[in-house]
Amino acid sequence: MKWKVFLVLLVVVFQAEAKDPVAVGEGRYMLTHKGKTIFSSADKIVADLMGQAHKFCQRTTGHEANLLESSGQEAQVGRAGGALGTQPAQGAVGTIYFSCGPATGSGQTAGDRGDIYESLARLKGLLDSGAISQSEFDAEKEKLLQSKGH
Question: Could you point out which of 2, 72, 77, 90 has its C-alpha 20 to 30 Å from the C-alpha of 40?
Fold first, then answer.
């Protein structure tokens, strides 16, 4: 019985996460998300938001999602007591602004950009886990961005 209650709560939490974008201007939309744990990554959140944007645009217009701007803030570890006081831990935050329409003239589709963000999120995960160093992360990130024409 306990596992059924847990499963229902889990489904409710994940359904609550999927939100439609907020219109912030003519043809411009915004999506934002805050991670619930300090193990979240701003790059991963942005990649996930692009996936949501793509689904929204496909559903509403049949077109691609074109990323206009993105930003993020990495998770913050909390502090207990001391001279600076107590600061609770905070999850990473990501925000994207996008429009729906045919792919932009850059030669990249929203799918290509989504792939870039997914690759960046995987690289960030490797960095966070200690599997690669900061310099290796920076070099791989640069290669990825150059190969996709950023």
Answer: 2
- How far, rounded to the nearest angstrom, does the alpha carbon of residue 112 sit from its chain's CA centroid? 15
Quote the CA–CA distance of 41 and 92 in Å, as a whole number: 6
Q: Among 10, 21, 76, 77, which Cα is nearest to 49's?
A: 21
Distances (CA, A) of 82 to 75, 79, 86: 21, 8, 7
- Per-residue pLDDT tens over the stretch 10-27: 433 443 355 789 988 888
Q: Which residues contact 54 (CB under 8 A, 6 or more apart)?
A: 64, 65, 110, 111, 114
- DSSP for 80-94, please give it: -SSTT--B--B--EE
